[in-house]
């Protein structure tokens, strides 16, 4: 499969974990090139491009400092999605937010600081998302695994702009130390928790799985679905994306999972 041709609408899913070099294929290379500003622009679909093609509505004149910073980081995500890393400027962020260039400088001082704090904002959001998902279920490992898989496809997290913004950070060499500083610890926490859940599920079913391999397979499956949603001319829907990842879980734990989620007793 190839990157989306010009004129095709695309729905993009988001996630925080970069694909390792060994898993970057020709499709993702094209995505990264466009997101980092060194390749042709990827058409993200009307929801992102239309919002940035017109002037942003003027925001309220009075907002708290934290609310204003969040507004600017959200505008940075949109700008990264539409323009890529190298073509994102404070002026473009201000335009997307409907604010002055000076106000962006007041809150973040430099482009580097704005990008750094936006990346930390994305990483914190994703980390909190899967932790909240686990908090809503009990101790059953199948339910916990399902909660983590579902968390990656929530509409509040899986927006067109967010994955494109992540790709912009992943594809820019100068941002890699920035990524490691902001995300390495959270990436490790996710990996460790997924391996722990897979270990308990393997023990419960007597599967005897190598849980490091299983957890890695599940992560790769999720990341591959995100790529499909980003690059296919006619991407499949969220429920189909989730069913695909659940099918991977079912292949690893057939007595506990199927394409619809955890199997119920009886």
Write a short abstract of this structure.
The chain has 266 residues and is mostly helical. It has helices at residues 26-35, 46-53, 65-83, 90-97, 101-108, 111-135, 141-151, 160-171, 176-205, 211-231, 238-252, and strands at 257-258, 261-262.
**What is the number of E strands?**
2
- What is the assigned CATH homologous superfamily? Tetracycline Repressor, domain 2
Structural class: mainly alpha
Order of helix and strand elements from N to C terminus? HHHHHHHHHHHEE
Shape: elongated
Briefly note the CATH topology name. Answer: Tetracycline Repressor, domain 2
Overall CATH class: Mainly Alpha
The CA-CA distance between the termini, in Å, is 41 Å
Counted up, domains total: 1
Examine the secondary-structure arrangement and name the CATH architecture: Orthogonal Bundle
Helix content: 55-70%
Average the pLDDT over all residues and give the rounded result: 81
**Which band does the percent of strand residues land in?**
under 5%
Task: Tell me the Rg in angstroms.
Answer: 19 Å
The helix tally amounts to 11
The biggest sheet, with number of strands, parallel, antiparallel or mixed sense and barrel status, is:
2 strands, antiparallel
